[in-house]
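Protein chain data
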Amino acid sequence: MSTRLRICCGVVALLSPGPLLAQALTLSPPDRQMTRDQVVAETMRPFAGKSMRGVGASTLNGKVVCGYQGWFNCEGDGAGLGWIHWGKDRKIRPGPGNINIDLWPDTTEMAPGELYATDFKFPDGGPGMLFSSFNHATVVRHFRWMRDCGIDGAFVQRFMWAKMEPLQFRHRNVVLHNCRDGANLYGRTYAVMYDLSPMKAGQIEAVMDDWRALVDHMKITSDGAYQRHGGKPVIAVWGFGFKDRQVTVEDGLTLLRFLKNDPKYGGLCVMLGVPAGWRRQERDCAKDTRWEELMGLADIISPWTVGRYRDAKDAEKYVTDLAAADLRWCADRGKDFMPVVFPGFSWHNLKGGADPKAVLDQIPRDGGRFLWSQYVAHKRAGAKMIYQAMFDEVDEGTAIFRCANVPPGTNFVTYGGLPPDFYMRLVGQGGRMLRGEAPVSDHMPALR
């Protein structure tokens, strides 16, 4: 099938034949002095394309939804942010000694305009190429991969600072625009997930202001691909209750009351991303006398379990000992429960040797069996929806998208010779099992 390229101010959009369904924003050159209002006018617009029929956005029941970081930048991508999240120094091209990631993305399907050369070299002498989440064609392609592998959609991560730099704000808006286009073009769903990790106590008004802008300018909850549940648009908030986060339960009460009750911006189905020890205020959960009050305002509870167990046996024990009781707690109170699963974990390069525990391949994938065991255990416990961590998280080695088996160097984890799309297809099969379209089996499906 033939294709053609459209270039907009350095942003390349790959267009398929036929009517244009999704198009990159036409952006001015990056300017750190631009105002918030200028960024809003340039990047926050209602969806104007056509929406393809797909999985349906009316419910989370029966869905597997991936976390989508969308935080990668490359020098020359039009964002003006340098090499964000690829290297330790964003002003220098990634290379040996200047790298954050433990998995190397497979970019063989990407067009030349989507690729940015690093100082890494493949065994054949070719340069190691990386992608940018600022690039419309790349993000839209990711949603095509989701469709092709049977993944339902994405929670688009929106990291919040009290005072976000204009170019950071611009990047987050462009990524959300790209995800919205990809979801509509390929019949997937998407929803906003606020990650409050960078925020301090008392700064929660910034999140409320941001949501007002998304509703006022992007008309985000009116989009046909935007995920709904129980008749309401879904919004996820991650970060309350963790011992190592600074936002407080009082901040959470303020935010959730706004998201639930505001006459213009409220009326939402709120999912809370909480610590694994949330129900009994133990392990990774900070103690607070008003914690249960905050939980009472949530519609969906989603405990963060990445790194909380290390192999299939421990994962099954976690579900039996904790998650099953979490689910019952939610059911008794008319709430939904969305467990988190992950394929493995590794952040050796991100930690840069500072943490002796951060060895390469810290939690091995075991050829997919580790991930599959979590799907089986949660299905047997009664889960109706699952959060897949993560689609594109190569920094912490939880990515499920296409990754290289022959990376440009030895200090990377690979998929062990499995096809680059293996984990996406495995997640698709997990969704089929969740919906009852495939039998529940401890034996991982044959996907080679």
Observations:
- The chain has ten helices and 14 strands.
- The domain at 64-434 is CATH 3.20.20.80 (TIM Barrel).
- Confidence is low (pLDDT under 50) at residues 1-20.
